[in-house]
Amino acid sequence: MHELAVTEYVYNIVKKQAELNNVNKVEKINLLIGDQCDYVPEIIEEYLQVMSEDSLLDGVKVCAKIKESKVLCKDCGAQFTRHEFDGKCPKCGSENLKLNRCTDFIVDNIEASQE
Ligand SMILES: [Zn+2]
């Protein structure tokens, strides 16, 4: 259920931006979501569609991109994603690593029409 709060957050940001830019209809919202957030983009889209009925967001599409957490090697300074990670630094083989958990949630941009 925590998607509901974040959806309200997105809705308010987008609505405000749309009003500031004299937009008549918002077509698409692009989100960037950290892989440690554990929000389900489909649920956010569903909530948004219900929330935005009869507003300028009516029928809006949501496109979410996942931002991957990075692992930092404390020895050589290399940064890599968790995908490339198998317990050791791929560059120098060190196990002295730090995981930077990505919990970002960003409204990246908004596509809208002004007719
Ligand atoms: Zn390293």
What structural keywords apply?
single chain; hypothetical protein PF0899 fold; 2 helices; 26% helix
Describe the protein.
This protein has 115 residues and is an alpha+beta fold. It has a domain at 2-68 and 102-110: hypothetical protein PF0899 fold (2-Layer Sandwich). 26% of the residues lie in helices and 32% in strands. The chain is built from two helices and six strands. Strands 2-1-6 form a three-stranded mixed sheet, with helices on one face. Strands 4-3-5 form a three-stranded antiparallel sheet, with no helix packed on it. A hairpin with a 5-residue loop joins strand 3 (70-73) and strand 4 (79-81). Helix 1 (2-20) packs across helix 2. The longest helix has 19 residues, at 2-20. Bound molecules: zinc ion.
CATH topology of one domain: hypothetical protein PF0899 fold
Contiguous low-pLDDT stretches (5 residues minimum) are: none
Strand order in the sheet with the most strands: 2-1-6
Number of helices, where a helix is a run of at least 4 consecutive DSSP H or I residues: 2
What class, by secondary structure content?
alpha+beta
Strand tally, please?
6
Compressed to H and E, one letter per element, the order equals HEHEEEEE
Mean pLDDT: 91
CATH class (first level) name of one domain: Alpha Beta
Radius of gyration: 18 Å
Helix content: 25-40%
Instruction: List the ligand species.
Output: zinc ion
The N- and C-terminal alpha carbons lie at a distance of 36 Å
